Amino acid sequence: MGKVTGFLEIDRHDRKYEPVAERIKHYREFVLRLPEAEARAQAARCMDCGVPYCHGQSQIPGAPSGCPVNNQIPDWNDLVYRGQWDEAARNLHSTNNFPEVTGRVCPAPCEASCTLNIDDNPVTIKTIECEIADRAIAQGLKPDIAAKKTGKKVAVVGSGPAGLACAQQLARAGHDVHVYERWAKAGGLLRYGIPDFKMEKVHVDRRVAQMQAEGVTFHYGVHVGVTMPVDQLAKEHDAVVLAGGSEKPRDLPIPGRELAGIHFAMDFLPQQNRRVSGEPLGETAPILATAKKVVVIGGGDTGSDCIGTSIRQGAVSVVNFEIMPQPPERENKPLVWPDWPLKLRVSSSHEEGATREFAVLTQKFSGENGRVKKLHCVHVDAKFQPVPGTEFEIEADLVLLAMGFVHPVHDGMLKTLDVALDKRGNVSADMESYLTSVPKVFSAGDMRRGQSLVVWAIREGRQCAHAVDKFLMGSTALPR
Q1: Whole-angstrom Cα distance, residue 467 to residue 480?
Q2: What is the DSSP letter of 53?
Q3: Cis peptide before 325 (omega within 30 of 0)
Q4: 254 touches 364 (CB < 8 A)
Q5: Which pLDDT tens digit goes with each residue over 225-237?
């Protein structure tokens, strides 16, 4: 694969960012693309390593993990090296419906499992994937219209990455697919959760247009189980796919939680995305970090997105608390490779001016005139127990809770359907058939597996489409 001696001759070079002082002035993407010659040179570094752990997600518990959608990474790296961009795009799209998305927001477990990562020098897989996708899209996204219609009608509830991937695959199999979305536009977290400076929404819009050309019908402003009865949906469709995501946020029920100025991240982030796109906020009160001291509780991707957004809104200061201890700067390769390593990660938003504090537990909020003014915190040990003498206070005008999600929202659709849930509160669905406890009702994505990565949602949507097509037709040609 690639140039046989490429990994010995060519150093790793990845995309760079616009300078901080420039990029915090806008909400556009700020990653600078590699020139074609450099992208091809980076692809040449992909070695014929025998067992390409980057290539796939094992079905065996505990086995090495690479790409959840089984991207044929060595193959399209070789094609890029040889300048065969169109063939590389065909290969990439055969396993991934939205590579322009994963090429921007996926944390790249493939690079962690790359053989060259043993030496902290993995192939720039994510960058090459994004370049392949962007070049293909620049030539125009052509619809892949089914040659024959099946006469079967399928409802997909939720238009996040799992729902979109499932809907597109089913439409290409010839089914009449209807996507029901409670918000004004499609995309789910791609649209409303991921800031535009990480991924502009034109990427979602183009895929939605492609899917519409392929026969997918989108129904917006339809909240299944609230504004549309679930039994009506089941009666009107031959199969129903629940892909509503994991939207119940993890709360912090401590004294002072009721004070104004304390918000969930997913109440804060969607507002800014709507402002950027010109979508009205309606009667929702604005949540802004402008001229405020901001504290973000939660050290994951959502917390990072809150940091970058707060800085762009003009926050006076941004502090990020994480209850976990600070991880090592480098992982122990012999112990963890090729699995996803626990190590200190610095996002582009962290670089823009946030202060990070690890092993911090917030014990209470206090305020004045009903608004939050202080957090009362303590450092914790490895067992998350408070360490005496480490108590401290920090001022805040805005607190954003970005501690993840516990499970899908149960009220409404799920309770009405009386669908079985697993021990974590997610929809229980068979690993192979994706069927729930309710006849002809399937589930995929975060609603089924719990909060996870965009690339896992795409995998779930594709595999669910395979299962639905087989359920409806007795057999299927859709890939798993």
Answers
A1: 8
A2: G
A3: no
A4: yes
A5: 999 999 999 999 9
